[in-house]
Amino acid sequence: MENIFLSNYTITDLENTITKVLKQIIQEQQLSINSATNELITRQETAKILKISLPTLHNWTKNGILPSHKVSTRVRYKKSEIMELFNSGDINKYGRTV
After folding, report:
1. Tens digit of pLDDT for each residue in 49-84?
2. Sheet (strand 69-71) strand order
3. Which of 46, 70, 71, 94 shows the greatest Cβ crowding within 10 Å of its Cβ?
4. Which residues pair with residue 69 across a beta bridge?
5. Are 68 and 61 in contact (CB under 8 A)?
6. What's the average model confidence in pLDDT over 3-23?
7. CA distances from 63 to 15, 55, 59, 67 (A)
8. Highest mean pLDDT among 36-40, 56-60, 84-88
């Protein structure tokens, strides 16, 4: 680790430097969170997160409750959209839409 001498720094300079570094760290964390939530996941993973069966997932997709995305011949779901549906409260305890 490099030695840093603070004798030439004012308190304001030190505060600005710390603020700048913290903003960078927060920004990097937000980018990693955003990329993780836009991740495409399989039908099985989606059903497990929502705690529903695959036929129910198919019905929700067919009825437009949950948007799906085609990747080649496969059906995938965006994790962010799943979490949005899960957290919206539009689905009650038994998986029925409100």
Report:
1. 888 899 999 998 998 888 999 988 999 999 888 888
2. 40-41, 74-78, 69-71
3. 46
4. 76
5. yes
6. 81
7. 54, 12, 6, 9
8. 56-60
